[in-house]
User: Which sequence fits this backbone?
């Protein structure tokens, strides 16, 4: 056997074989042949999403590859969650510089952890050498399923009168990222010097368990798959927060041709509650600054969606830790509503890969 095939056997075919066997009915052919085969029950729809991750852009070069593998699959599964689809399988394409060969078992281990946790077998892929000096690059394609009756939660489907909901605590991954840069002595790369005192003042209010969760959220995000499935027939537009609330919300506003109003009070109250503080107590000076960070922070992989006001939304809200953070009205763009100062436009500040000044993570 060539080294390449020995590697595929040891890292991918063998460790993932149990998971695929568990789903053999849906996956009659997996790794080892020219094609894999997916067999959906009659009356079901196939959903597909793909993402590419590059060392130095999507993760700190040198970061643990088990985390990288976990996050690569989890972030792809998050796209299925945002479509309300159930995972079926994924494929993995790798371009590997020779310097990274020895770490690939770690990458495979992280992928296997996420695959096992979210019950999504690996069914194939491709492995190639990267040119000398080039970055480790991986590309994942996930396949999901739903009944034909479920048409997804299109970004163009928000309707005037819908409430805007978010799961979990958006901004946690931003906190994790700022802490990571601070730990590396590179905070200035992501936060202007003038704002460092605000960050430190904010940190003094953050309990240890939140900083730990922030770290975990950044490196091992949780795709909200169960929530996505529970929203079938209930949500209109939905997306997962990968690039930051301010920019992601603009996608829904633009594609649905309506205006999204985000409620500043609701977002601040979420954080006050998480930090164990009475509303804005002791955070008055920094809340506005932190809110801005929450709006631009990516990588949360929480679901953000619009849904009509119904009794079942209230039940879902308590079951899945959902907060209503705004509403859909006639108009365009995304506005932030402050009870004291009124409405102001939210600038989209999401990460943009095509900006020449786009920096490393
Ligand atoms: P082919 O040349 O016919 O495309 P390959 O030599 O690329 O086949 O791969 C052999 C088998 O190993 C295929 O079944 C393929 O899906 C699988 N494979 C290759 N690379 C990976 C990978 N990174 N992850 C999972 N499966 C892989
Ligand atoms: Mg091939």
Assistant:
């Amino acid at each position: 056997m060539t080294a390449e095939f020995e590697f595929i056997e040891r890292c991918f075919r063998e460790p993932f074989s149990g998971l695929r066997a568990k789903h053999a009915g849906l996956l009659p052919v997996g790794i080892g042949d020219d094609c894999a085969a997916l067999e959906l029950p009659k009356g079901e729809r196939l959903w597909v999403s793909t993402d590419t991750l590059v060392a130095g852009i999507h993760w700190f070069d040198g970061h643990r590859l088990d985390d990288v593998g976990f996050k690569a699959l989890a972030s792809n599964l998050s796209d299925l969650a945002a479509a309300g689809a159930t995972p079926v399988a994924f494929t993995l394409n790798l371009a590997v510089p020779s310097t990274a060969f020895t770490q690939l078992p770690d990458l495979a281990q992280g992928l296997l952890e996420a695959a096992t946790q979210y019950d999504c077998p690996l069914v194939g892929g491709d492995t190639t050498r990267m040119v000398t000096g080039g970055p480790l690059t991986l590309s994942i394609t996930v396949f999901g399923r739903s009944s034909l009756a479920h048409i997804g939660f299109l970004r163009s489907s928000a309707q005037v009168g819908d409430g805007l909901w978010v799961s979990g605590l958006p901004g946690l991954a931003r906190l994790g990222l700022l802490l990571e840069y601070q730990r590396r002595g590179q905070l200035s790369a992501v936060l202007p010097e003038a704002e460092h005192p605000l960050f430190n003042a904010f940190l003094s209010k953050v309990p240890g368990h939140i900083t730990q969760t922030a770290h975990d959220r950044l490196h091992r995000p949780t795709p909200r798959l169960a929530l996505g499935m529970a929203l079938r027939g209930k949500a209109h537009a939905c997306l997962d927060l990968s690039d930051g609330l301010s920019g992601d919300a603009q996608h829904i506003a633009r594609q649905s041709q309506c205006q999204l109003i985000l409620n500043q009070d609701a977002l601040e109250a979420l954080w006050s509650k998480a930090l164990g503080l009475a509303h804005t107590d002791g955070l008055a000076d920094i809340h506005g600054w932190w809110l801005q960070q929450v709006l631009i922070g990516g990588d949360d992989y929480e679901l953000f969606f619009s849904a009509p006001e119904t009794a079942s939304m209230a039940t879902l809200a308590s079951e899945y830790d959902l907060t209503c953070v705004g509403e859909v009205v006639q108009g365009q763009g995304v506005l932030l509503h402050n009870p004291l100062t009124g409405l102001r436009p939210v600038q989209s500040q999401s990460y943009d890969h095509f900006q020449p000044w786009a920096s490393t993570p």
